[in-house]
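Thread amino acids onto this structure.
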């Protein structure tokens, strides 16, 4: 069968109304994980499982945590070892104050060619598009080589338990490439920033604000760490430069807390302080070096502050206990991901996007982490991230997705499968 004919057959199986209906049904299910309110991913997962069953897919519901299942949908398209994964998540973030919305956050209202609602953009619209694409590949009856697997996963927005479980169960072992279905405005994202997140915990000694010399203030160390982080950022920018897709590396102090816990008081000099830093890396930065630099900064700051106190106390002719400790804890170490631009998966995505939109595909990078990060980091799975929806709309009020782009996305997802698993 000629490729043009296969393309026609697959695209003919994508029904716009069915896609919109499925996206709307998913948006109408509140799948915010909120143990106090009792909402979770259960109902959305069961809905997807029911959908898969009706379309003759093999599927499994796997409980990751109570009320939080993954749905694994599989279909063998033909002989061959290749497996293409489509990944989408069922959880959404909270709508916040519903009165700040101009629509019902779980209403899936359609206005001027857009669907509104929490998750419409991130990523239930794209989840619907990937399911419709999988069904189109299955129904079209075109020969394929290999299998497709749909990972409809829980808990992407928080701790990424769903994808970890998916990997632990061995599902990723046979995946040769994954399409991460997230809102990227039609851009084909081949790379993602990495992250190192750390906490500096500074211990001094608490005292009365009027008698600071009877304690040991942590504030100079806090200031020094913040200055030091900025120096590290400048060094990284000078050494690595600006990545064409990901921009600059950054070392951002995001939490600065003194006292480290409990209420602050103007006349109390706190004994402990906490600084958290969110480091975002680009290809070329070595994470072991970044971690060593953070630990080195803590050590040097500790030393410099102690020397300073020693000299100052000598000047004041003061004897006091000068213990100052800075503990560094690494909270996250997540590498950058980078799928080569000439990888068959990226080429399939380029070709699919060109075929559907008639435009030259544009490559970009994902600023944050997705479930794809873990597939790439833990299982070496090549990934591309693409989908409908403005990249800045997720997590905002009045979240929306453009329905024309959603339809195109379903077509692109389906053609990626066709090209990636092409049989001659
Ligand atoms: Zn998402």
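Threaded sequence (424 positions):
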């Amino acid at each position: 069968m000629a490729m043009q004919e296969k393309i026609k057959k697959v695209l003919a199986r994508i029904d716009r109304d069915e896609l919109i209906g499925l996206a709307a049904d998913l948006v109408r299910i509140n799948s915010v994980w909120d143990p106090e309110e009792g909402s979770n991913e259960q109902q959305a997962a069961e809905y997807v499982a029911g959908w898969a069953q009706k379309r003759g897919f093999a599927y499994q519901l796997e409980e990751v945590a109570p009320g939080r299942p993954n749905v694994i949908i599989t279909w063998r398209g033909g002989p061959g070892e290749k497996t293409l994964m489509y990944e989408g998540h069922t959880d959404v973030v909270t709508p916040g104050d519903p009165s700040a919305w101009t629509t019902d956050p779980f209403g899936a209202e359609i206005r001027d060619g857009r669907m509104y609602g929490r998750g419409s953009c991130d990523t239930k619209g794209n989840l619907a598009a990937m399911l419709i694409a999988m069904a189109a590949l299955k129904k079209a009856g075109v020969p394929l080589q290999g299998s497709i697997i749909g990972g409809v996963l829980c808990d992407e927005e928080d701790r990424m338990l769903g994808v970890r479980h998916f990997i632990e169960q061995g599902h990723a072992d046979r995946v040769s490439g994954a399409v991460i279905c997230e809102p990227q405005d039609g851009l084909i994202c081949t790379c993602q920033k990495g992250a190192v997140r750390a906490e500096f915990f500074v211990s001094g000694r608490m005292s009365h604000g009027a008698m600071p010399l009877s304690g040991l203030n942590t504030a100079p160390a806090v200031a020094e760490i913040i200055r030091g982080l900025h120096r590290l950022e400048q060094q990284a920018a000078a050494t690595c430069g600006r990545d064409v897709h990901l921009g600059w590396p950054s070392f951002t102090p995001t939490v600065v807390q003194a006292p480290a816990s409990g209420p602050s008081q103007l006349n109390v000099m706190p004994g402990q302080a906490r600084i958290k830093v969110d480091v975002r890396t680009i290809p070329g930065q070595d994470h072991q070096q970044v971690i060593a630099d953070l630990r080195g900064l803590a050590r040097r700051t500790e030393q410099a502050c102690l020397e300073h106190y020693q000299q100052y106390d000598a000047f004041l002719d003061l004897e006091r206990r000068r213990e100052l400790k800075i503990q560094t804890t690494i909270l996250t170490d997540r590498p950058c991901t980078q799928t080569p631009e000439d990888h068959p998966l990226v080429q399939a995505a380029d070709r699919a996007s060109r075929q559907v939109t008639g435009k030259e595909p544009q490559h970009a990078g994902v600023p944050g982490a997705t479930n794809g990060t873990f597939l790439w980091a833990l299982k070496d799975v090549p990934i591309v991230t693409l989908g409908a929806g403005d990249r800045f709309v997720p997590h905002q009020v009045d979240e929306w997705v453009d329905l024309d782009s959603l339809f195109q996305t379903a077509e692109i997802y389906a053609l990626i499968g066709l090209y990636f698993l092409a049989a001659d």
